[in-house]
Specification:
Aspartate Aminotransferase, domain 2; seven-stranded mixed β-sheet; 14 helices; 13 strands; about 15% strand; pyridoxal phosphate
Length: about 375
Amino acid sequence: MSDFLLEPDVIFLNHGSFGACPALVFDKYQHWHRQLERQPVRFLQRELPGLLADARRQLADYLGARSTEVTFVANPTFAANTIARCLPLASGDEVLISDQEYGACRFAFQFAAQQKGFRIVEQSIPLPVETDEAIVEAFWQGVTKNTKLIFISHITSTTALTLPVAKICQRAREAGILTMIDGAHAPGQIDMNLEEIGADFYTATCHKWMCAPKGSGMFYVREDRQHLIDPLVVGWGWGPEKTFHRENDFISNHEWLGTYDPAAYLTVPTAIDWHKTYFTQEVRQRSCDLARMAVDLSAQIDGIERVHPDAFFRQMGLIDITAHQVEDHVQLKTHLYDAYKIEVPVIRWKDRTLIRVSSHAYTTEQHIHTFVQALKETFST
């Protein structure tokens, strides 16, 4: 816990919402703030292009992509809006999503659908799942001759389910369908290689499981698809007087949108170094084991069930408390915090009530036991 800035009296089991930043990483974040303010003109005009290029290169290396295919964005919601607004989708076209997609990104496509007239098809992936093949087959039932884009999560936010995105992307490519993957929860939680995944578009946060500062996200577009993506915001990066990267329209269009604070982006390499040094495979496995421990122990309580087999989740475990007929899930979340200082999301999804437990390097066995005891006491009354 001492490596992080989290309040020591809070049992923080909600890394999945906004992440948490190690002190070492946050110190570097403040360093970049100071560098900017010491000489803003020099920093923004003369130093920033090279600094961003280096940060982007390190991020691309970490994710298994080329640096010309990755640009920084504030968050996946921004990237989802870019795709939804820019792709030539029209009346008669369909965008296929699962029934477990993140609300803000789903809203981006719903808004664009109202403007352009294309249709969103939401395909159910029944829970619990048993195999990757079963997931692909269930999802593929939503594909029609009108499907132009598949938009699906790598690890779902609401249900903490790891989806076989590489298999879905491969099948989509064979069918001539574009793919965009919402990887908000993937980098830092699982090892990944964007080239091997094979998506046309991929977006993720760096501030969640990579533990970079808030407001650092990435947007990957394969080089042969970049001509499809116009900038959502037009600034100095566009046109004949490009400020940055005149040799690459995709980077130039998306990297300089006007004056902004680049400190979160520039801190991403430090977060990557922190992961390589401190969040070793041993520590990551321990975090996964604690999430599974939370699920296993909770499922021993009457009226609580596990949702996924161990193979389908990593550092976010999910339990189903629907049988307890919780009338107000927000009130339950507040109760767990006020009574036990446990920060954990209680989620209403379809007709089910779920609790998603996140574990990271700062999580201890005692945290998990306190959480389980809190559930026992709460549901015994």
